[in-house]
């Protein structure tokens, strides 16, 4: 049910075809004060059309317009203020929500077409960074959003598992490595080896030469080299998977850069066929001047292919394999240029579907306004951040609700949820800072606040001792507090649509916060459990809020404990 649309339709009947329903919709405003009604229509834009003063037009339309969803209309100067029929709308909205359950707001826009989402994509043998965390949680939320819109998301972890660094790592491991140590602490040990390689190779350039040789062996499929590479990869992945498990995020594919090794020659051949390669000082490039971009470096003078060459192969592979409706890449801002080049090269190749590829950039997580750098050794290991958040959540729970069953589990859901929620509540392109203390608060604009609000709604339902709120036609509520809640429930399809069109999970996070805030106000101002005629309707509202908050959180990738 979309009451804005109902009002637009009613207006359209009066105004006639000089304005379409869509045009009327865009003109509708939300009055600044609640006492001015729920929706306002300014008549200014009709003045020219009808050659009358807007005041007069407003008065005339106000006389005649009518809709079952509108209780009364007030004409104030050039404005028509609509007061909606709360009784009718609340009954309809609650019925729709209770009927649909978790499918509330779903549409079939995507017609089951595939949407690959390139997300997380850390580099083997290196710590997964906070940037990769952002990519993981943003990608996961986008997957859930496109799924609500009727698409089939395909979550792809495009691992950085190829490159000359693996030659160096193989050399370092053979010189100084220990199998046991790597098994115990894969990433930390591999990183140590890599760092040591760089230190030692400064004194001993011979090492670099060996690194190059071993990478060559790896490329040529040498058994020893391949075995080590595979092992580094699987050990690293084990460690990454621990984090993904904690975040409760899964992937449909781990096809990383190496997956495209045998698909590179075809890309080069295609580029050659289309005659867009040029050789510049030994390197093979695609000129992108007409796109106002630097040339894309496809092959180095020694024949080695590059990051972008692999992404070309991956893009073509994804189009062939998934016949995608859209192909998304949740990757930091700093790679914006890379994705522009990628799309431009594909465009040059004549692939118009490159227009359906979208880079979804995001900002940095900073500390004290500065970029967290891994180089300087300030590696913020994700696990540590999550551990801190969980410990802080546990402290809060101990203080608030010491008898809570499953305290550890709930603390985990709250701590991890807080980190995810904080990441997603900000518009993704912005940089943000955070401290664990701030984000694990049960009050304020936090994940725990939303979870806590939902748990409170669940506890009201428990107190009411009802197992199920039946779907019914007559859950009508008329007070101003419930009305704010009803409106947020009603708007859900538009909210999802906006989140989808902007690829912006923060739209969902804000919806969750607003719904939680509106519900808490309602709860503070009404006596939900008092026995009277309206009680079933109030409980229906509580149930609807509990379910919708849970759905918002689910989309974001945050769990919703029933008690906390
Ligand atoms: N591994 C890369 C990095 O850590 C990110 C890969 C992003 N995905 C892609 N298809 N280029 O910077």
Automatic annotation (TrEMBL):
<dbReference type="InterPro" id="IPR035684">
    <property type="entry name" value="ArgRS_core"/>
</dbReference>
<dbReference type="GO" id="GO:0005524">
    <property type="term" value="F:ATP binding"/>
</dbReference>
<dbReference type="InterPro" id="IPR005148">
    <property type="entry name" value="Arg-tRNA-synth_N"/>
</dbReference>
<dbReference type="GO" id="GO:0004814">
    <property type="term" value="F:arginine-tRNA ligase activity"/>
</dbReference>
<dbReference type="Pfam" id="PF05746">
    <property type="entry name" value="DALR_1"/>
</dbReference>
<keyword id="KW-0436">Ligase</keyword>
<dbReference type="InterPro" id="IPR001278">
    <property type="entry name" value="Arg-tRNA-ligase"/>
</dbReference>
<feature type="domain" description="Arginyl tRNA synthetase N-terminal">
    <location>
        <begin position="5"/>
        <end position="84"/>
    </location>
</feature>
<dbReference type="InterPro" id="IPR014729">
    <property type="entry name" value="Rossmann-like_a/b/a_fold"/>
</dbReference>
<dbReference type="InterPro" id="IPR009080">
    <property type="entry name" value="tRNAsynth_Ia_anticodon-bd"/>
</dbReference>
<protein>
    <recommendedName>
        <fullName>Arginine--tRNA ligase</fullName>
        <ecNumber>6.1.1.19</ecNumber>
    </recommendedName>
</protein>
<keyword id="KW-0963">Cytoplasm</keyword>
<keyword id="KW-0067">ATP-binding</keyword>
<dbReference type="GO" id="GO:0006420">
    <property type="term" value="P:arginyl-tRNA aminoacylation"/>
</dbReference>
<dbReference type="Pfam" id="PF03485">
    <property type="entry name" value="Arg_tRNA_synt_N"/>
</dbReference>
<feature type="domain" description="DALR anticodon binding">
    <location>
        <begin position="450"/>
        <end position="564"/>
    </location>
</feature>
<comment type="subunit">
    <text>Monomer.</text>
</comment>
<comment type="similarity">
    <text>Belongs to the class-I aminoacyl-tRNA synthetase family.</text>
</comment>
<dbReference type="InterPro" id="IPR008909">
    <property type="entry name" value="DALR_anticod-bd"/>
</dbReference>
<dbReference type="Pfam" id="PF00750">
    <property type="entry name" value="tRNA-synt_1d"/>
</dbReference>
<dbReference type="GO" id="GO:0005737">
    <property type="term" value="C:cytoplasm"/>
</dbReference>
<dbReference type="InterPro" id="IPR036695">
    <property type="entry name" value="Arg-tRNA-synth_N_sf"/>
</dbReference>
<feature type="short sequence motif" description="'HIGH' region">
    <location>
        <begin position="122"/>
        <end position="132"/>
    </location>
</feature>
<keyword id="KW-0648">Protein biosynthesis</keyword>
<keyword id="KW-0030">Aminoacyl-tRNA synthetase</keyword>
<keyword id="KW-0547">Nucleotide-binding</keyword>
């Amino acid at each position: 049910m979309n009451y804005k649309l109902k009002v637009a339709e009613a207006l359209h009947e009066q105004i006639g075809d000089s304005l379409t329903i869509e045009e009327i919709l865009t003109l509708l405003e939300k009055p600044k004060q609640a006492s001015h009604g729920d929706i306002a229509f300014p008549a200014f834009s009709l003045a020219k059309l009808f050659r009358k003063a807007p005041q007069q037009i407003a008065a005339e339309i106000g006389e005649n317009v009518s809709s079952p969803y509108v209780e009364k209309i007030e004409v104030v100067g050039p404005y028509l203020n609509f007061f909606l029929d709360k009784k009718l709308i609340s009954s309809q909205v609650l019925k729709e929500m209770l009927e649909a359950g978790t499918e509330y707001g779903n549409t079939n826009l995507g017609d089951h077409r595939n949407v690959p989402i390139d997300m997380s994509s850390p580099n083997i043998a290196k710590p997964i960074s906070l940037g990769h965390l952002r990519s993981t949680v943003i990608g996961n939320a986008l997957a859930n959003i496109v799924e609500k819109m009727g698409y089939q998301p395909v979550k792809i972890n495009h691992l950085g598992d190829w490159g000359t660094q693996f030659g160096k790592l193989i050399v370092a491991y053979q010189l100084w490595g220990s199998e046991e140590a790597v098994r115990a602490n894969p990433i930390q040990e591999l990183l140590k080896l890599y760092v040591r390689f760089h230190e030692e190779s400064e004194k001993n350039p011979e090492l670099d030469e060996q690194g190059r040789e071993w990478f060559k062996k790896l490329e040529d499929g040498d058994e020893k080299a391949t075995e080590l590479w595979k092992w580094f990869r699987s050990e690293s992945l084990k460690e990454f998977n621990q984090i993904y498990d904690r975040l409760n995020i899964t992937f449909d594919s781990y096809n990383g850069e190496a997956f495209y090794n045998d698909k590179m020659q075809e890309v080069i051949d295609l580029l050659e066929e289309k005659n867009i390669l040029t050789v510049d000082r030994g390197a093979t490039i695609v000129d992108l001047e007409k796109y106002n971009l630097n040339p894309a470096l496809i092959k180095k003078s020694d024949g080695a292919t590059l990051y972008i060459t692999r992404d070309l192969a991956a893009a073509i592979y994804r189009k062939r394999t998934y016949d995608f409706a859209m192909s998304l890449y949740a990757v930091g801002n700093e790679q914006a240029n890379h994705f522009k080049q990628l799309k431009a090269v594909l465009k040059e190749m004549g692939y118009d579907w490159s227009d359906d590829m979208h880079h979804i950039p995001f900002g940095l997580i900073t500390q004290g306004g500065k970029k967290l750098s891994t180089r300087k050794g300030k590696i913020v290991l994700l696990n540590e951040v999550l551990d801190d958040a969980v410990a802080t959540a546990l402290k809060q729970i101990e203080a608030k609700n010491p008898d809570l069953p499953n305290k550890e589990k709930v603390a985990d859901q709250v701590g991890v949820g807080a980190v995810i929620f904080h990441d997603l509540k900000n518009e993704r392109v912005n940089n943000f800072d955070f401290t664990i203390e701030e984000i694990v608060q049960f009050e304020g604009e936090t994940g725990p606040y939303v979870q806590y609000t939902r748990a409170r709604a669940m506890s009201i339902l428990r107190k009411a001792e009802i197992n199920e709120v039946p779907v019914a036609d007559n859950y009508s509520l008329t007070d101003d507090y419930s009305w704010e809640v009803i409106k947020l429930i009603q708007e859900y399809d538009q909210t999802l649509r906006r989140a989808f069109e902007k690829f912006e999970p923060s739209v969902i996070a804000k919806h969750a916060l607003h719904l939680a805030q509106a519900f808490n106000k309602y709860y503070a101002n009404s006596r939900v459990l008092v026995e009277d005629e309206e009680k079933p309707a109030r409980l229906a509202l509580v149930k609807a809020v509990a379910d919708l908050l849970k759905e918002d959180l689910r989309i974001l990738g945050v769990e919703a404990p029933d008690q906390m």
